[in-house]
Amino acid sequence: MDQIPSVSCWLTDMDGVLVHEQRAIPGAADFIAALQQHGRPFLVLTNNSIYTARDLRARLRDSGIDLPEESIWTSALATAKFLADQSAGGSAYVIGEAGLTSALHEAGFVLTERDPDYVVLGETRTYSFEAITTAIRLLERGARFIATNPDATGPSPEGPLPATGSVAALMTRATGVAPYFVGKPNPLMMRSALNRIEAHSESTVMVGDRMDTDVIAGIEAGLRTVLVLTGSTREEQVGTFPYRPTRVVASIADLVSSVGALAPADGGAVAV
Known about the structure:
Blueprint: E1 9-13, E2 19-20, E3 23-24, H1 28-37, E4 42-46, H2 53-62, E5 72-74, H3 75-86, E6 91-95, H4 98-106, E7 110-111, E8 118-121, H5 129-140, E9 144-147, E10 153-154, E11 161-162, H6 164-175, E12 180-181, H7 187-196, E13 204-208, H8 211-220, E14 224-228, E15 247-249, H9 256-260
Parallel strand pairs: 1-4, 1-13, 4-5, 6-7, 6-8, 8-9, 9-12, 13-14, 14-15
Antiparallel strand pairs: 2-3, 10-11
């Protein structure tokens, strides 16, 4: 690892890396504090489109991890940015929660079920059969289909819940129209995050807990990747994938020293 060029910017997944079921993973608060102490540009990424960045900041703070809401980048924010770039001032019919609707509002979109440019599907804990039916009919009339992320299930204390990818599959089966997924593993989300912190892929590391979303998205965006074993991917599963992370560590606690170990007073880069 010492031969790898130094890095100065960090992207990290949230669930499974920093928190697990709203509890901070040991070392997560220290990692974020080290990034702030050494002035490292960073973003916390999540495919969860339910909550606003402000909501997530409050939830992280309650778990003992303190960071500004500007340091959180959700699939909802990435979707809104993508759509604003594609069709500024457009319209959308949205299935989702405040994280998605507020992001689209702030991006200048009109939310309507009357001949919208897009049907935008996000995550919600209360998927409505009526809303899904309306979306299907709009797709059949020519609306373009966008989804925040392809995750088939989401976690809960009681077990997995159907998520955006599952509902998208239902809508595709009914219409024959497949969505464009913006969130991980689409490297577009990584690129938009890099642009947000004005970072370059060669000097940025992506930290995640899933080989099939975090690691592959990082690799395809040209980033170095670190897999932590506190989330979805087990160590024995790593070798089953046709690609490899740059580094595998037990948890985010193993990266705290990497943030500042070689950090000179002038804010230079560090090695990973």
